[in-house]
Amino acid sequence: MPLSMIGIGEESTIKKIGGKEDTKRFLENLGFVIGGTVTVVSAIGGNIIVNVKDTRVAIGKEMANRILVS
């Protein structure tokens, strides 16, 4: 399921990152790597704030939809 569908406070494992190569590289540089864990902190408007690799990152819902988690 996409990261944007995860509830606040839930921790999930990243299974796949979709999109063009530039998008994948950008997300990997932010810490979104396959096998890594991510926790949703809040979702306001079209933005989602997550904890990934001990860092809080804000991404748009469109970008969050490219990150598949379980």
Low-confidence stretches are none
Query: Helicity level, as a percent range?
Result: 10-25%
Query: Structural class per helix/strand content?
Result: alpha+beta
The DSSP helix count reads 2
| Total number of beta strands | 5
Question: Measured on Cα atoms, how large is the radius of gyration?
Answer: 10 Å
Q: Give the mean pLDDT.
A: 95
Oligomer: single chain
Proportion of strand residues: 35-45%
Helix-strand topology string: EHEEEHE
Summarize the topology.
Layout lengths: L10 E7 L3 H10 L6 E8 L2 E6 L2 E6 H4 L2 E3 L1
Task: Note down, in words, how this protein is organized.
- The chain has 70 residues and is of the alpha+beta class.
- Helix content is 20%, strand content 43%.
- It is built from two helices and five strands; from the N terminus they run βαβββαβ.
- Strands 4-3-2-1-5 form a five-stranded antiparallel sheet.
Search tags:
single chain; 70 residues; alpha+beta; five-stranded antiparallel β-sheet; 2 helices; 20% helix; globular
Quick take:
The chain is an alpha+beta fold and 70 residues long.
